[in-house]
Amino acid sequence: MAGHGTQEHPHGADRLCDTGERVYSRAVRRGRVPRRDAEPVPCLLELALLHPDPDDMDFLVPTAPQEVMTRLLRGMYDEVSASHRRVGSAVAAYERYAGLGRQVRAPAATGEGSAIRVLDGLSRIQAAMDEATEACRTEVLTVQPGGIRREHELSEGLPRALALRGRGVRMRDLYTHVARHGQGLLNYLELMGDAVEARTLDEVIDRLILFDRTVAFVPANADRTMALELRHPALVEYLVTVFERLWRLAIPLTAPLPDTGIEGISHRERSIAALLAEGHQDAVIAERLGISVRTCRAHIARLSETLGAASRTQLGVRIAQAGLDGPPGADGASAVSAPGRGSRTAR
Question: Same structural domain for residues 128 and 43?
Answer without folding.
Answer: no
